């Protein structure tokens, strides 16, 4: 079925590209972004470009310049400006304060390693998402007083987690994969919304941006399906509209591993140096999407 037939015509369509500048873009990124661009084009909408640069230890200015150059080389366009998450911290902090006021978050000194160790043998959902379910017994009791957040301007030095509702079925209809559902507290547990190094969690920053920027459809890789359930809960808690979702299949290497930025041979800059043209690259995506 053509993209035009699968997307309802909507002049208000807003999609987004959201690369993280922790390395060079590779073939898998290009295909995901191609899907995003095609769906925006078919809907007569626009794309936004979000620079997911919250990982201070890995993000580099040179990677930002490289990703923009690679995206333009591919022929992608977006509505200016480029939105950098590192410049939107006040927005995320405001959302954190709203969650705190609603009693939906709590401080937590448990590390990711602690959670992984408590999980023991990973549940199937943990293998797929690389995020063990947070043990319920580590939560503070329901209704227990929650310490205040540090005042604005003071660093947050403790992890804060979102308390998911136990046993709630969270569902959405994915525009690529069809109906999706998961049970909170079983398939995924309480998750970080702010880290002790004073950085917003991925789930919070992503959900807040999608709402604030008016994104109507999120196009991304299928490895992020489980993140969608978390983000839906955050969006609902913040009283925001939940966008539509399209999770496209991941590209893998010769042994079936999903592509990562360490795969230098498949980096867009490497392919360019070998003489590949954008037309050849995007033509392959179009061909395989019709199979």
Summarize the structure.
This protein has 291 residues and is an alpha/beta fold. The chain has helices spanning 3-6, 27-42, 61-74, 89-101, 112-119, 124-129, 202-212, 225-237, 268-273, 278-289, and strands at 14-17, 46-51, 83-84, 105-108, 159-162, 169-174, 178-183, 191-194, 217-221, 244-248.
Descriptive notes:
Helices cover 35% and strands 16% of the residues. It has 291 residues and is α/β, with parallel strands linked by helices. The strands form 4 sheets. A 3-stranded parallel sheet has the order 1-2-3, covered by helices on one side. Strand 9, helix 8 (225-237) and strand 10 form a beta-alpha-beta unit.
Question: Which structural traits does this protein have?
Answer:
291 residues, alpha/beta, Rossmann fold, 3-stranded antiparallel beta sheet, globular
């Amino acid at each position: 079925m053509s993209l035009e037939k699968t997307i309802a015509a909507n002049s208000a369509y807003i999609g987004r590209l959201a690369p993280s500048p922790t390395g060079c873009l590779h073939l898998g990124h290009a295909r995901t972004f191609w899907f995003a661009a095609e769906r925006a084009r078919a809907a007569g909408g626009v794309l936004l470009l979000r620079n997911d640069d919250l990982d201070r230890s890995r993000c580099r200015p040179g990677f930002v310049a490289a990703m923009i150059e690679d995206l333009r080389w591919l022929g992608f366009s977006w509505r200016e400006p480029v939105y950098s998450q590192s410049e939107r911290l006040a927005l995320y902090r405001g959302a954190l304060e709203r969650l705190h006021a609603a009693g939906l978050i709590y401080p937590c000194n448990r590390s990711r390693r602690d959670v992984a160790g408590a999980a023991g043998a990973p549940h199937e959902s943990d293998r797929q998402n690389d995020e063990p379910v947070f043990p319920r017994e580590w939560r503070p009791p329901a209704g227990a007083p929650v310490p205040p957040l540090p005042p604005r301007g003071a660093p947050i030095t403790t992890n804060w987690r979102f308390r998911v509702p136990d046993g709630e079925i969270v569902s959405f209809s994915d525009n690529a994969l069809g109906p999706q559902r998961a049970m909170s507290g079983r398939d995924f547990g309480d998750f970080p919304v702010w880290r002790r190094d004073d950085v917003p969690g991925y789930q919070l920053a992503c959900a807040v941006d999608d709402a604030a920027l008016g994104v109507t459809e999120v196009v991304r890789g299928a490895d992020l399906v489980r993140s969608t359930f978390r983000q839906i809960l955050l969006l609902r808690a913040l009283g925001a509209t939940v966008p539509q979702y399209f999770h496209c299949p991941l590209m893998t290497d010769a042994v079936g591993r999903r592509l990562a930025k360490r795969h230098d041979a498949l980096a867009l800059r490497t392919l360019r140096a070998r003489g590949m043209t954008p037309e050849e690259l995007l033509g392959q995506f179009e061909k395989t999407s019709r199979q």
